[in-house]
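Example 9 (inverse folding). The structure is encoded as follows.
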């Protein structure tokens, strides 16, 4: 009886997952990115220098970007919000996801991953702009923002859309809450436990206990403690991985031109990687490039906006620009470097796109690292997955907490955090394939209400962007658009006028 129920649930889940992450879901993501690019006049291209200067450039020049808030201030710095968001986005998808895209879609899938990222920059930008514009302060003094808030107050503010906005906000929160236990927790720690056992012979239960202890200290300490850990862990793990990857790439520097040729050739190839049906290879390259790009940077899912909204920033566009940089760093930089590592080390026939290696996922990347680092290659990837995956758990713990607070109130949030930490142990020690598949579906289902809200509110994003460009770039003397709520608009505008960016 139980097996029959599980089989039926699996069949339904596969059908839903196929719709969400099939042609419909990918098309919806791409359409949203194109729309937001058009209405904001190609902000990611036309103001490239401006957003680079005000994100990565500002870290070294503007103290308020990295300065921590006081003990009584529940907001986190702009840099902390970026690191916490990237803690969730830079994960196993940057290693396993890229390898999977190459295996199933050939080298050409990397080109389409870039395309998805280019348009995804503006989707993520728009989410963050709306997140800041519609956020409010909770009972504890922490900023609360995310898709559920701009669905309820933004979409719900349109004539006759109050109930629609409320329902979509609740659905988004439910999907986010369920996904946080799976894709944001158990699936991540399961990857850690498996890799630690194969690389270092550490039993899964030992890894589980260790992660529960560390997770308890960080997660139960609240957002500011998560942000403090993230701002140290994310730069360290990203730089460590990038340096290791660049060593391999420069060692095989002679093959780099051929790699890029294979990527561009494969992106428009009429045949599949190993020959076969005309057009099939192009379809697979596009599909897997788009899928892995979306999974990696999460633009359009409405996840990272929940932590970006907790930033101390006043300008919605300032936080929006961090959203652009987040996608740029995650996909254009980290995912591209992973792809170059795999393709430069002879694991794929660059002429035909056919796989030479029989390894998959993390093992394929580990094999590539082993060409230079020998036996340490697999251990290096195991350590990278440990850092990447656990940072994802920290980021998602905040997403789940935000969804829980929206549904059940702030006073019960500790219950969620305790359950979340306990599930880390079960994720390490149990085989939960169905749970992982279900969480994957819930993660994708977050996208639908979120993108409905983003697309419906594109005129608002366009007005906020134009207001910022006119004031900050063109030097016009006009009132800023900082919040939809009059009292917050006034207080934020006064602080901005006084030069208080914190």
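The amino acid assigned to each position is listed next.
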């Amino acid at each position: 009886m139980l097996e029959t129920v599980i089989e039926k649930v699996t069949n339904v889940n596969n059908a839903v997952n196929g719709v969400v992450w099939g042609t419909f879901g990918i098309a919806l993501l791409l359409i949203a990115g194109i729309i937001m690019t058009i209405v904001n006049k190609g902000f990611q291209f036309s103001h490239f220098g401006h957003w680079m200067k005000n994100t990565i450039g500002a870290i070294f020049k503007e103290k308020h970007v990295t300065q921590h808030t006081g003990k009584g201030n529940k907001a986190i710095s702009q840099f902390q919000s970026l690191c916490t968001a990237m803690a969730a986005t830079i994960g196993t998808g940057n290693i396993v996801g890229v390898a999977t895209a190459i295996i199933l879609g050939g080298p050409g899938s990397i080109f389409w991953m870039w395309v998805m990222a280019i348009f995804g920059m503006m989707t993520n930008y728009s989410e963050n702009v709306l997140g800041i514009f519609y956020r409010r302060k909770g009972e504890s003094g922490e900023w609360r923002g995310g898709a559920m808030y701009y669905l309820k107050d933004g979409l719900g503010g349109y004539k006759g859309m109050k109930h629609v906005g409320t329902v979509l906000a609740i659905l988004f929160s439910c999907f986010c809450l369920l996904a946080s236990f799976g894709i944001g927790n158990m699936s991540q720690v399961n990857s850690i436990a498996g890799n630690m056992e194969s690389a270092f012979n550490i039993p899964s239960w030992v890894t589980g206990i260790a992660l529960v202890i560390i997770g308890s200290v960080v997660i139960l300490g609240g957002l500011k403690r998560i942000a403090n850990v993230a701002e140290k862990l994310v730069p360290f793990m990203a730089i460590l991985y990038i340096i290791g990857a660049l060593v391999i790439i420069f060692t095989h520097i002679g093959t780099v031109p051929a790699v890029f040729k294979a990527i561009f050739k494969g992106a428009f190839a009429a045949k599949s990687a190993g020959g076969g049906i005309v057009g099939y290879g192009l379809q697979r390259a596009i599909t897997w490039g788009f899928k892995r790009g979306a999974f990696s940077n999460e633009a359009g899912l409405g996840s990272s906006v929940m932590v970006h909204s907790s930033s101390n920033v006043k300008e919605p566009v300032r936080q929006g620009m961090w959203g652009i940089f987040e996608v740029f760093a995650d996909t254009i930089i980290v995912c591209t470097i992973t792809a170059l590592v795999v393709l430069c080390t002879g694991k794929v026939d660059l002429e035909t796109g056919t796989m030479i290696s029989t390894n998959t996922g993390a093992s394929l990347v580990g094999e590539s690292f082993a060409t230079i680092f020998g036996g340490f290659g697999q251990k290096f990837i195991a350590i990278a997955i440990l850092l990447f995956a656990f940072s994802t758990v920290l980021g998602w713990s905040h997403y789940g907490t935000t969804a829980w607070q929206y549904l059940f109130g702030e006073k019960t949030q500790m219950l969620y955090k305790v359950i979340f930490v306990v599930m880390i142990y079960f994720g390490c020690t149990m085989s939960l394939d169905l749970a992982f598949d279900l969480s994957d579906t819930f993660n994708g289902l977050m996208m639908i209400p979120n993108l409905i809200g983003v697309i419906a509110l594109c005129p608002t994003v366009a007005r906020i962007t134009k207001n910022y460009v006119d004031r900050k770039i063109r030097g016009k003397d006009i009132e800023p658009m900082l919040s939809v709520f009059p009292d917050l608009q006034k207080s934020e505008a006064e602080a901005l006028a006084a030069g208080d960016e914190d």
